Amino acid sequence: MPCYSIEGVVPVVDPSAYVHPTAVLIGDVIVGPECYIGPCASLRGDFGRIVLQRGANVQDTCVVHGFPSADTVVEENGHIGHGAVLHSCVVRRDALVGMNAVVMDEAEVGEKSIIAASAFVRAGMKVPPRSLVAGVPAKVIRELSEEEIAWKLEGTLTYQDLAKRCLAGMREVSPLPQAEADRPRVKAPEVLPLIAAKRN
Q: Are 191 and 158 in contact (CB under 8 A)?
């Protein structure tokens, strides 16, 4: 993985975490156990510290950065969807930040909350625990159901499993010229999108 020190401060990655080779870690970045960092994610600890606690995931093309002397923290089981941006904020335990959402300076995403895809969480906003938040600017829509909180945790556990799968079996290869007749499928655990889970 591209990993850079700055002024002698070197990123830290727990051996049980998986960081994709195209992700970039710079400076004061601490990646805890069982975390997953996806392709093309950028974690820039060249101003403030970035901390990912146990089991957090930061998916492909996410950007994590912050002001000097400010920590950007994703607590245990935090779940950061594709393309999201976190800047000098805190994402509390078991919370989810949806795809392409932005969480700004000094904002705090409460425990077990969900920030909807493409939401803009303004600077200083304090999202209550167990809240669904959506919109530009983001507003609290309602309290989450137990079913929705359980669905979120299931997705996060799938990413913790993905970290293990990647450490064990992801390798750089050359592509095949065509698909095999008996082409295998990857052995991912089954998890449904929330809309499908609610239908069942």
A: yes
How far apart CA 29 and CA 44 sit, in angstroms, is 7
Q: Which ranges constitute the DSSP H helices of 97-179?
A: 146-169
Give the tens place of pLDDT for each residue, 70-95. 999 999 999 999 999 999 999 999 99
Nearest alpha-carbon partner for 147 in 130, 128, 162, 133: 130
d(CA 29, CA 92): 18
Residue 200 has pLDDT above 70, yes or no: no
Residue 20 dihedral angles phi and psi, to the nearest 5°: -60, 145
Cα–Cα distances in angstroms (integers) from residue 51 to residues 83, 90, 105, 140, 189, in the given order: 18, 10, 15, 26, 27
Using DSSP's 3-state secondary structure scheme, residue 134 falls into strand
Question: Residue 198: pLDDT above 90?
Answer: no
Nearest CA-CA partner of 16 in 157, 170, 160: 160
> Looking at beta carbons, which pairs linking 80-83 to residues 24 or more positions away fall under 8 Å?
80/56, 81/117, 82/38, 83/59
Q: Is the peptide bond before 68 cis (omega within 30 degrees of 0)?
A: no
